[in-house]
Design brief:
The protein is an all-alpha fold. The protein is 60% helix and 0% strand. The protein has helices spanning 3-29, 45-58, 72-82, 86-107, 117-129, 139-151, 154-160, 176-180. It starts with a helix and ends in a 7-residue tail after the last helix.
């Protein structure tokens, strides 16, 4: 056999070896199967779904991404495991359960997965504005955690808030609207 033909055939076979798995992977990725992308560590899956909806109630999508698009619900779940004490964890779960129960009463729905942002908005608003809410002991703290988790997100810190990775010159009496286009500084 001619050396030139051998080299051509070896090159083609190497091309097939590399190309076939790539094409198979491409075809397999086209399936429309929905998988659970996030499994909560502290909450149950239903409570995690409820938390994801609640963070969107607090910070919905506007010109900026919603809180769930920036995975604030994952941050809060992780924060609850790592940083909250046992009493706060219990208050957190109680608050989620009672928010769902109040939404069920208001909407005649029976499953957490069917609750929408519109169902939870009035319930969350009344929970946050009510001064003596023993049923929802963690509602205001939950709202604060959502805002804190949102502001601590890298995207918000760099794209939404005014951000300078390396501080520049010191301008002591500059107008905020001139310096940052009216945006608050990233912390």
């Amino acid at each position: 056999m001619d050396r030139r033909k051998v080299l051509i055939r070896m090159g083609l076979s190497m091309g097939y070896v590399v190309a076939v798995p790539t094409f198979v992977g491409l075809l397999q990725s086209c399936k429309d199967e929905k998988t659970v992308a996030w499994v909560p560590t502290f909450l149950s899956e239903e409570e995690g779904s409820l938390l994801k909806t609640i963070v969107d109630v607090v910070l919905p999508k506007t010109e900026t991404p919603s809180a769930s698009e920036l995975d604030v619900h994952k941050f809060i779940d992780f924060f609850a495991v790592e940083c909250l004490g046992n009493k706060q964890q219990e208050a957190f779960k109680t608050t989620l359960t009672n928010l769902a129960a109040k939404a069920f009463v208001a909407t005649d729905k029976t499953e957490i997965s069917t609750l929408t942002i519109n169902d939870l908005t009035p319930v969350m608003k009344s929970a946050v504005t009510d001064k003596d809410s023993d049923e929802l002991p963690f509602a205001k703290k939950l709202r604060d955690l959502v805002v804190w988790g949102y502001k601590c997100n890298e995207y918000v810190g760099e794209e939404v808030l005014a951000y300078l990775p390396v501080p520049g010159e010191y301008i002591p009496c500059g107008d905020l609207n001139e310096l940052t286009d009216g945006r608050a500084w990233s912390e």
